[in-house]
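Reviewers of the previous submission asked for a worked example of the structure-prediction workflow described in the proposal, so we include one complete record here. The input consisted solely of the amino acid sequence. No template or homolog information was supplied to the procedure at any stage.
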Amino acid sequence: MTRTIAEHQLLLLDILSPIREVPQSAIAQLDEHDWAQIMRMSEEHRVTPLLDWRLKHEKAHLMIPENVRLDCADSFKAATKRSLAIQRELLLLHRLLKEGGFQHIFLKGAYLAYFAYPQPGLRPMRDVDILIPEQEIIKAFNFLLDHGVDRIDKYQSIPHPSNVSLVHQLPPIYSPSKTTCLELHSSLFHIDERSQTPIDPSKDQSFWDRSIQRNVGNETLNFQSPEDLLLHLIEHAVYGHKFNNGPLLLSDISYLLETHEMDWPKFWRLTEDVRCTRGARLTLELFQRYYGKGAIGWPAGQIQNEAISESVINSSAMLLLRDFRTSCETNIIITAKTRTDISSVFSFIKKRVFPSRPQLALLYPISPTSPLIYFYYPLNWWRLLAERIPNFLRVTQKQNVSEDMRQLSIVNQWLNSQGTSSVVVAPVKPTNN
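From that input alone, the workflow returned the following structure tokens.
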């Protein structure tokens, strides 16, 4: 019996969960089309190795088609092999940046895969993310290019001091061995559409001071503190990607909390500092649904008092597995719909039709200070007319996009509502359940 996309999403999340019950009757109802859809979502969101792990451990009793088990096992083997190659890239990059005298911290997956998950292959990485102070990042970018790192054909825009502050990362480049993509970040957080843009933690020296060091091979690498890493995972998922970075978000949190002592009062203070307490609350409630209620230290007197409806939790869960192929357009449409007055609508349109020179230089291989940049405005308009607008029209006709937009609206409405905003931080202990 072929199921709906929403049913596929929720079933896959239940299978990936170590605590959720999955009856064999639900598995028996799946036909080839159902499994094809589930495996497509699993591969797209990089959770097939984790699916293999669950089917061999907590969900070993489930009778799964043999071809599905074999595909999962093959994915885990491939991810494990790739993790070894990426570890080599980390060492090469660290040595290059150290040679150039650039302060740097490896972000998210580079730490989680090797120091939180039980096996590195369970946490696949698309690319390597490195944080470098904003004032040094262009020098570091050019230093790497001068020392054997190459540009990627698709990303040829020219970084310039005038546009570094407009984005949180520079154009992707190849890692030293050209086996993966490298992204240099000047800030942790995305430049998003929030009315009050948060102050990025990396702009404060205390963030760098509380970084932690771990040995990789024979080198000592710098990583985020556990509290900063948890905050980054949540902000990146909720505000940067509207939950579309997949169920790895939940397993990242699970293995991080399982292997590290978390200073919860410090974490909640950090969420207040960057105005994402509601996003943290929603993410951790969603985490508890799929990984249990014993790991979170809630601050006294605030967070637990405001109930989140089941519809908000459900929408957040399904957004974890929405289609990457339409997610960009869906996010822009939802952002546009939140504009309620003429001036903000006009500003939204103007920013895309008449971007500033630094913004335009983020898209094309031209310096924002070059007089030739004005010739790129007609090129950008043609791109909007010939590619972007037709693509938007195609996307809006798809049934799953309408459902994604409905779910995004539910989540955005809760995030932007006027719930309790201040956190009373007191010594806390994880709740027992």
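The radius of gyration is 22 Å. We consider this example representative of the routine output the project will generate in years two and three.
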